[in-house]
Design a protein that fits this description.
193 residues; 6 helices; Rossmann fold; 7-stranded mixed beta sheet; alpha/beta
Length: 193
């Protein structure tokens, strides 16, 4: 069964001091999408988030960037899903992924949280893992003990360029994702040029 995507969430930490950090890669995706389609993300207190209703490729879709801290992302996501009567499997969560090198982007459905506190909280609030994730590679610091500092740091200029290119690839694949053609989208994203 094809489930068109009705909500795209970009995970982030709020505040200027985090805006350019690796952990905000999911928000970069949603911000770039909003910019591309001239949608305005506005503070929506009932969702604890920045929110916009977007029309992408003739399809209505909610855009959401939680304004809670990363480890409380589920609060904003659940509020938005409930308010708009959207099922978890109609949601795409864009997030940074340290298990992928910078410049890599992957689409997946279901699965664990991979140690990502934003995903962990969403799974906990929704009581399901059944939603789509857009995994934006930011690279790994090499040692587990360095991960917390690493994701809260800015990527190098070279890595930022790679991440931006990966986000661009994700945006180009969005028509397939939105229409529920996930296998085609995965093929497009997972086949390196």
């Amino acid at each position: 069964m094809l489930h068109p995507i009705r909500l795209i969430v970009g995970l982030a930490n709020p505040g200027k001091e985090y805006a350019e950090t690796r952990h905000n890669a999911g928000a970069w995706f949603v911000e770039q999408l909003a910019e591309d389609i001239h949608a305005t993300l506005r503070h929506e207190s009932k969702h604890h988030a920045l929110h916009a209703l977007a029309h992408i490729h003739h399809q209505a879709c909610q855009l959401l960037i939680p304004l809670t801290f990363m480890n409380l992302s589920g609060q904003a996501v659940r509020a938005c899903l409930n308010y708009h009567k959207i099922a978890p499997n109609e949601m795409l969560v864009a997030h940074d992924d340290i298990d992928l090198p910078a410049g890599t982007i992957r689409l997946k459905f279901d699965g664990g949280d991979g140690g990502h506190n934003g995903l962990k909280d969403i799974i906990s609030h929704l009581n399901t893992k059944q939603f789509y994730r857009l995994r934006i590679g930011v690279g790994h610091p090499g040692q587990s003990k360095d991960v917390a500092d690493y994701v809260l740091d800015k990527p190098s200029k070279a890595d930022k360029k790679k991440i931006d290119l990966a986000i661009q690839r994700g945006l180009e694949t969005l028509p397939l994702i939105l229409s529920g053609e996930m296998q085609k989208a995965m093929h497009a994203l997972h086949t390196e040029d």
